[in-house]
Amino acid sequence: AFRQEIAERQEQFAKQAEASEVENAQQVVLHRCVSHFFQVFNLAVERGVFSASDRLYYGLNANQSELPKLTAEQDLVSWARNLIDGEAKRTQQSAPEAPVIPVAPDMEPASEQDTVPMSNPSAAEVETELNKYIELRNAQSAEKQAFDAENKDVLDMLPEIDELIRDIYDEVEFYYRKETPPNRRKLAREWGVSYVSRPGEEPDDEVVEE
Q: For position 159, what pLDDT does the model report?
């Protein structure tokens, strides 16, 4: 029964590891997609395609040309959602509803050109990758919970297994009680009994006396 529980735990661990690998790979894809969106958008601002104030739609400072922090998983998902929601608002309205953040004097006001959808990548592409990531993250979480359950089954059996091992050790040593101590230990080892030599103690000879 204990072997079966361990086998089930190992099998579930392999599933969890595979799910984690797939999730991490998709996180890299999502990170690249979100990063490229902001990079391309900033380049378009430099070319005058979009107004700097359009950054407000995404939760950025109007003067912020650097990328937001995307290292942590929570930040990546948050900025992906800001991007998707902000792009929808930007392409449907002529001015941001977000609180106004001071813009440099040389920045042009929003124009009809500012409602042109972003591309390479588009918000729809980012949303597709985000949805894939959320799905894989949930799948990994489910596999982790399943592993935790299997691990608990193993841990719950340990006290019973430990007690059984102690009983077997005691019975084996009692059976060989009339042997010399070194010989008793050699014979008991055949049953899996383990011994640890004290510091400076000579190890037992491997030959069992007849």
A: 96
* 130 exposure class (CB count in 10 Å sphere: 0-12, 13-18, 19+): buried
Long-range contacts of 150-156 (CB under 8 A, 24+ apart): 150/5, 150/8, 150/9, 150/12, 150/13, 151/9, 153/5, 153/8, 153/9, 154/2, 154/5, 154/6, 154/9
**Up-side HSE of residue 22: CA atoms within 13 Å toward CB?**
17
| 56 and 62 Cβ atoms separated by less than 8 Å | yes
Please tell me whether residue 202 adopts helix, strand or coil conformation. Answer: coil
- Look over the chain and give the mean of its residue pLDDT values, rounded to a whole number: 87
Q: What is the pLDDT of residues 86-138, one digit of tens each?
A: 999 998 865 444 444 444 444 444 455 557 888 889 999 999 999 999 999 99
Proportion of the chain above pLDDT 70, given as a percent: 86
Report the alpha-carbon distance of residue 125 to residue 131 in Å, rounded.
Answer: 10
Each residue's pLDDT tens digit, 24-44 = 999 999 999 999 999 999 999
Phi first, then psi: give them for residue 116, nearest 5 degrees. Answer: -65, 130
C-alpha pair distances (Å), 20 with each of 17, 26, 172: 5, 10, 45
Task: Give 58-61's long-range contacts (Cβ < 8 A, gap of 24+).
Answer: 58/82, 58/83, 58/86, 58/87, 59/86, 59/98, 61/101
Q: Report the C-alpha gap between 64 and 41 in whole angstroms.
A: 12
The distance of Cα 157 from the centroid of its chain, to the nearest Å, equals 28
By three-state DSSP, how is residue 33 classified? helix
